[in-house]
Amino acid sequence: MKPPRFDYLRPQTLAEAVELLDRHGGDAAILAGGQSLMPMLNLRVAQPAVLIDINAVPELDRIGRSGDRLSIGGRARHNDVFRSAEVAQAAPLLTVALEHVAHEAIRNRGTLGGSLALADPAAELPACMVCLDAEIVTASVKGERRIPAGAFFQGLYTTTLEPNEILARVDVPAAGTDWRFGFDEVARRRGDFAMAGVAVAVREESKAVAECRISLLGVEMSPRRMEAVEMCLLDAPLGTAANIVAAQSALRDTLEPIEGSEIPPEYRIQIAHELLARVIRAMAAPVSGKRTH
Amino acid sequence: MMASDEPMAEISCTVNGQPVRAHVPLRQSLVDFVRHGLGLTGSHVGCEHGVCGACHAVVDGRVVRGCLMLAVQVDGRTVTTIETDQPTAQMRALQDTFFERAALQCGFCTPGMILQASELLTRTAAPTRAEIRDALSGNYCRCTGYHAIVDAVETAAARLRDKAAA
Ligand SMILES: Cc1cc2nc3c(=O)[nH]c(=O)nc-3n(C[C@H](O)[C@H](O)[C@H](O)COP(=O)(O)OP(=O)(O)OC[C@H]3O[C@@H](n4cnc5c(N)ncnc54)[C@H](O)[C@@H]3O)c2cc1C
Ligand code: FES
Ligand code: FES
Question: Cα distance from A209 to chain B (closest Cα, Å)?
Fold first, then answer.
C-alpha cells in the first residue's frame, strides 16, 4: 500500500505557500499533519500531482490570545491545542473535545486546519468551531478572507475553502466566566471517529440560560447550529427535566442523519438523543475529578 | 526497488544520534526509509494507514506514525527509533518490565508500545491505568490482550518514581 507518485514542494513562508497553491490549485494538496491525507494517498483515494508541505512555514502553529479573541494557527497540532493553558482558559470546549480526537501519536502531528479543511462529518473540531461561533481565516494571493464557522461547512467533506486558499487560523471568541460548555460522544473504541457526539455552550444570567449554542458531530453530513433545540433551553435554569425532554424531542424532529453508512440512522439519532440529556445534566451538576474508566 | 525515473530527493537528518545523508524517493514513508534505507527494522509496517501504531518512531522528541510521514519530511530533523543506543530512562525501564511481565508474545507491536509508553511516562510520572490505556489506545496488540502491557507500564512508572525519590 504505497502512495502514487507526486511532486513535493516545501515553501518556507506563507507568501511562498499561497503563491505555489495559486499556481497549482486543483492539482495540489496541502500536506499539514498528513494524518488524513497520507492514509488517503496510501489507499489511493487521493492522487494529487503536487504536495505542498506547509510544515516549514513559520507562525502557522501559533496559539495566542489578544483581548477577547483566541487565535489558533491552522497548523497548530492537536496535542498543542489540547495541552495549551490559554485554550483551556479561553475555549475549554476544545480541550475537552480534543481528548476524543484520535490517539497520542496522531495528535502529535494532526492539525486544526487539517481537520477543519477535511470536514469529516464525525470529526470533533468542526462541530466545536460551530458551537463556539468561531471565525475561520483563510489566506491566498488575494489576501485574507474571514468565514463564520457556521457558513464554512457545506456537506460531507465539503467546505467553502477555495482551491487556492490555505486555512491560516481560527479566531475563537474567548469565553467569559458566565459561559459553560459540555461535550460528549460515543465511539466504538477510544480514539475512533464518533458515531454521534454533542457540543453545548450556554451563557447564564441570574441563573437562567440567556444564550445557547448546540452542534452535533457524527450524525448529520456536516455540523450546524441546532436552533430549535437551543430554544428549548432558553430563559430557564439549565437542566430542568422538562426542558431536557423538550430539547430531546426538538432534536429528533430536527436531525437529518447520514444515510447509507454501516451505522443505521436511527441508531445515531438514539445516541444523540441520549447524549444531549447526558451533557446537559453534567453541565448542570458538574462533578470534578478525573475520568475513571 | 524503485524505477529509475522515480522522483527522488536528497535529505540529511540525525538518526539515533548519527548523521545520515540519503537519497530517498519522494513518496517513501519514514518507516520504509528507516527499514529499507537504514536497516533499522524495529519499526514495523502494519496497516500503513495510521491505525495500528507498529510503525512508531520519534521525530524531534515526539512519537509519530512512521507510515504517515514522508522520509523527505525528516530532512533536517532528529529521528529516534527503538534501536537507539541511548535509550531514555523511561525506555530502559519499560524494556525491563515488558520482559519481566511477558507483556509481549510475537513482539510485532512492542517497539511502538515502548516508544508511546515512554512518551507518557516522560510527561506523567504516575499515570492511572485509565491514562495508560488512553495513551496506548492507538497501539494495537493482536496477542497479549493488553492487560500485561498495562501492568508493565504501571510497574515501570513505579520503578522510575522510586528511583527519582532515592
Ligand atoms: C487512526 C486515526 C484515527 C483518527 N481519529 C480521529 C478522530 O477521532 N477525530 C478526528 O477529528 N480526527 C481523527 N483522525 C484524523 C486526524 O485528526 C487528522 O489529523 C485530521 O483530520 C487532519 O489533519 P492533518 O493536519 O493531519 O491534515 P492532512 O492529512 O495533512 O490534510 C487533510 C486535508 O486537509 C487539507 N489541509 C490540511 N491543512 C490545510 C490548511 N491549513 N489549509 C487548507 N487545506 C488544508 C489537505 O490538503 C487535505 O485535503 C484520525 C486519524 C487517524 C489516522
Ligand atoms: S503501520 Fe503505521 S499505524 Fe499501522
Ligand atoms: S505481542 Fe504480538 S501484536 Fe502485540
Answer: 34
CB-CB neighbors (< 8 A) of A6 in chain B: 7, 26-27
Nearest-CA distance from A184 to chain B in Å? 16
User: Do B94 and B157 reside in the same domain of the chain?
Assistant: yes
Q: Which domains are delineated in chain A? A: 7-53 (3.30.43.10), 58-173 (3.30.465.10), 179-284 (3.30.390.50)
> Which range of residues forms the domain containing residue B120?
89-165
ipTM of the complex: 0.97
Residues B30, B34, B40, CA angle at the centre, nearest 5°?
150
- Record: contact A293-B27, CB cut-off 8 A: no
Q: Which ligand is nearest to the CA of A74?
A: 1
CA A105 from centre of chain: 19
Q: What is the pLDDT of residues A29-67, one digit of tens each?
A: 999 999 999 999 999 999 999 999 999 999 999 999 999
The three-state secondary structure class of A191 is coil
The closest residue, in CA terms, to atom 11 on ligand 1 is: A123
Among the listed residues A71, A279, A109, the one whose alpha carbon sits nearest the alpha carbon of residue B55: A109
Task: For A239-284, write each residue's pLDDT tens digit.
Answer: 999 999 999 999 999 999 999 889 999 999 999 999 999 999 999 9
Number of domains in chain B: 2
Asked if B108 and B75 sit in the same domain, the reply is: no
CB contact under 8 A, B116 and A105: yes
Q: Is residue B119 part of a domain?
A: yes
A179 neighbors A193 (Cβ within 8 angstroms): no
